[in-house]
Amino acid sequence: MYGLTETYGHISQCLWQESWDDLPAAAQAEKQAMQGVTFPMVEDIRVVDRATGQDVPRDGLTQGEIAIRGNTVMKGYYKDAAATAEAFAGGWFWSGDAGVVHPDGYLQIRDRLKDVIISGGENISSVEVEAVLYRHPAVLVAAVVARPHDKWGESPAPLSNCARGPRP
What we know:
This protein is mostly beta strands and 168 residues long. It has two domains: 2-112, Roll (Luciferase, domain 3); 116-158, GMP Synthetase, Chain A, domain 3, CATH 3.30.300. The protein has helices spanning 25-32, 81-87, 126-134; strands at residues 2-4, 9-13, 37-38, 42-49, 54-55, 64-70, 93-101, 107-112, 117-119, 122-124, 144-149, 153-158. The strands form four sheets. It has a five-stranded antiparallel sheet with strand order 5-4-6-7-8. It has a three-stranded antiparallel sheet with strand order 1-2-3, with no helix packed on it. The chain has a two-stranded antiparallel sheet with strand order 9-10. The longest helix is centred in the C-terminal third of the chain and has 9 residues, at 126-134.
């Protein structure tokens, strides 16, 4: 599921498709990791390239920012007209979340935009680095943040030593 405080809770979910029943377990887990389709009270959820204002292609690769409209989206930030104006530019609520849309129309969140690590001009998703770490059998918990780097500006860094032995 996906939702924010500003949307008064969940606004989309991953609805299981019967065609996924015969997929291998790893492929089923990837499908379940998608945030899926909008709830009925949500007018629309888009993944938008902020530079062009256009929806990103439904290729599961091209990232954009998640924009939302619906009757459960807040009216604005309390006593903060400037933040409200920025959050609702163009009549959409801009979530600050990066996402992709898959060919089947399912949405998948990739990261918080403010958590993206910019290293030597490359954008590195902390969530994607964590996902790679999780694939190693000795990693039980992982968290990646940006740290200052003299040459690259920022570089990914684990919050702590995350190796804890084999998973149960």
